[in-house]
Amino acid sequence: MKRSVLTRYRVMAYVTAVMLLVLCACMVAKYGFDKGEGLTLAVSQIHGVLFIIYLVFAFDLGSKAKWPFGKLLWVLVSGTIPTAAFFVERKVVREVEPLLTDAPSPLAKA
């Protein structure tokens, strides 16, 4: 497995987690204070697209790391729980880093 697979997952895990926190703040503003309805709509749509990309990258990492279904499901669901993705990402990185290969690509030899 290449390091780029893990890097893509890490970036999307953080982006998704931050966007989910922003979305939660927008929801509090919208429903608690009746402010920011347009902003909430925009943030929810952006988060939705980013979450789909996160799912693709997490599934790719899980299939390459040969995770059991339960673990893969937990990693996928962690993007829906505020702050969970931060903790799950750290655990995933610790488990996957020993599986990485840093073999140089054929283009690097030229």
From TrEMBL:
<keyword id="KW-0472">Membrane</keyword>
<keyword id="KW-0812">Transmembrane</keyword>
<feature type="domain" description="DUF3817">
    <location>
        <begin position="6"/>
        <end position="94"/>
    </location>
</feature>
<dbReference type="InterPro" id="IPR023845">
    <property type="entry name" value="DUF3817_TM"/>
</dbReference>
<feature type="transmembrane region" description="Helical">
    <location>
        <begin position="39"/>
        <end position="57"/>
    </location>
</feature>
<dbReference type="GO" id="GO:0005886">
    <property type="term" value="C:plasma membrane"/>
</dbReference>
<protein>
    <submittedName>
        <fullName>DUF3817 domain-containing protein</fullName>
    </submittedName>
</protein>
<keyword id="KW-1003">Cell membrane</keyword>
<keyword id="KW-1133">Transmembrane helix</keyword>
<feature type="transmembrane region" description="Helical">
    <location>
        <begin position="69"/>
        <end position="88"/>
    </location>
</feature>
<dbReference type="Pfam" id="PF12823">
    <property type="entry name" value="DUF3817"/>
</dbReference>
<feature type="transmembrane region" description="Helical">
    <location>
        <begin position="12"/>
        <end position="33"/>
    </location>
</feature>
